[in-house]
Amino acid sequence: MSATELADRIDALLPQTQCRQCGFDGCRPYAQAITGGEADINRCPPGDDAGIQALAALLGRPAKPLDTSRGQPGPLKVAVIDERHCIGCTLCIQACPVDAIVGANKRMHTVLPDWCTGCDLCVAPCPVDCIAMVPVAPPRAWTRQDADTARRRHRARAERLEDERLQREARLAARAPAPAAAACAQAAAPAAEARKRAAIENALARARERRQRVRP
Ligand code: SF4
Ligand code: SF4
Ligand code: SF4
To answer: Cis before residue 97, ω within 30 degrees of 0?
Structure first.
């Protein structure tokens, strides 16, 4: 079996929440690290003991306890945005590995609960702390079908981001300024950055004010 085939088979056993608790940039990179002998099989909290046993059986190795320094298994959760406080900064959209958040710049954002893997990655970037992880109700287990769907969405997102990057590069190449114009643009960059920072500060201040007003 080639290394790619083995990584495919390992990846097929991983939960695909793309939560990065294993210390890798998603399930596929972890599968590749196991294949290359760079990572042990017990670093995936969402997979828990059943996942470790499946990996051990595939690789013909003894199972071992979950490395709890990577995190603890827990009930399936879903992200919920308190839309009253959202300032529409889009940072959560950029963090979500499966495109489970919809919204636009300066507009309220919301989570598609059926798409959310519970990975938690959108919580930390939110500058106004308006995203909470809540247990799925009624409680249910994360299934293999959920994992396969999440893998497809994660890949579709990666392909979309790559397309967008290539289009951006092509646009920039088409508009490449003459050297003198480029020097002007470089000189203007700090001012543009300062304006952007000020806009974010203003938005945060407005959000803080709103929060103060709605507090009982
Ligand atoms: S589910 Fe999370 S911890 Fe498990 S392999 Fe995927 S990214 Fe790593
Ligand atoms: S909405 Fe948040 S918790 Fe849900 S998949 Fe996206 S980043 Fe993860
Ligand atoms: S990170 Fe927070 S404030 Fe920014 S768009 Fe997402 S929910 Fe709204």
So the answer is: no
For the chain, where are the E strands, in sequence order? 77-81, 101-102, 110-111, 131-135
> pLDDT tens, 168-211?
999 999 988 766 655 655 666 677 667 666 665 665 666 566 55
Nearest CA owner, ligand 3 atom 6: 92
pLDDT digits (tens, 9 = 90+) for 24-79: 999 999 999 999 999 999 999 999 999 999 999 999 999 999 999 999 999 999 99
**Token pair in block for residue 30:** 């972890």
Q: Which atom of ligand 2 is nearest to the CA of 115?
A: 5
Q: Which residues of 69-105 are buried (b: 16+ CB within 10 A; e: fewer)?
A: eebeeeebbbbebeeebbbebbbbbebbbbebbebee
| Atom from ligand 1 closest to the CA of residue 15 | 1
CA-based diameter of the chain, in Å? Answer: 65
- Structure-token match 């959209």, residue found: 93
